Amino acid sequence: MRKTALVLILALLVAGAIHVTAENVGKNITPDEFSGMSKAERQAAAQALKNADSATAGPGFQGTLRTGTKHSVPARTVNISITYDTGTFTGVGTIPAVADNFSFGNHFDSVNGDPIGGTKNTVTITQLTAFMAIVDGDTTGTGGAFATIFGPPVGTVAPSLKSANIAGLQAGAFNTIAIATTITGTNLNFMAGIWNPTAGSTAGTNPCATDCVGFDNAGTVAGQGNHGMAIEDFGGGNFTPNTTANAMLRATGSLVPVELMRFSVD
């Protein structure tokens, strides 16, 4: 009987000690003191801190949480402009001696001497800007013309990716052409041009006479060299670089560092 009573007294003393320890722990407890406690003492101490915080807590958030809303991490985007011409209109392109319809424009494979985007940046091209020397055979009026985007050339062939008839183009001025299907990636390499529907001749060459983008042979921007080209508009054949001029055709868009495109949490 006395043994049972003694056990109960000891149990009450231990429980009381744990309770006192729990009530007295707080911000002043040191890591060494906490690590020196038994498992039961550490649990009691943690619970005491939770109880103390709960006793002083306010009513909490009283509003309505918005659910089902997608959130995105802000990206560090910068604008990018690919310009090879100096803005000086020199003339129109010459159709190579092949009986086919040609698109005149630029081969976009670098920006300021560097790869477009490189391996660490994703570039999205959303817009072209073209100086129209002639539209619908007129050097002063407005009209429509086909703008075509090609992939990178392999030899004398390049895939035709997208072609659209652009209305309201002003001759003798720069015109903005939005790209409905954007070009996105790293190390971009593509071509873009304006279609001239007048067929060439197997016996010689003819100048563009219907819908013509202007060419500039007065120099290059930042010493980037000449990127002008002509290519069959529909088939993407007979790619012919223009080594003496740049088309007055520019590409603009945005750049995002690749490491910001995705993230993970460990």
Encode the helix/strand succession as letters: HHHEEEEEEEEEEEEEEE
Query: Structural class of the helices, strands and pairings?
Result: alpha+beta
Number of helices: 3
Strands in their spatial order, largest beta sheet: 6-5-8-3-12-13
Q: Mean pLDDT, nearest integer?
A: 78
Beta strands, count:
15
What is the percentage of strand-forming residues?
25-35%
General shape: elongated
Instruction: Report the C-alpha radius of gyration, rounded.
Output: 36 Å
Biggest β-sheet description = 6 strands, antiparallel
In helices, the fraction of residues equals 10-25%
Stretches with pLDDT under 50, minimum 5 residues: 2-23, 65-75, 260-266
Straight-line distance between termini: 58 Å
Essential attributes:
266 residues; alpha+beta; six-stranded antiparallel β-sheet; 15 strands; disordered N terminus; disordered C terminus
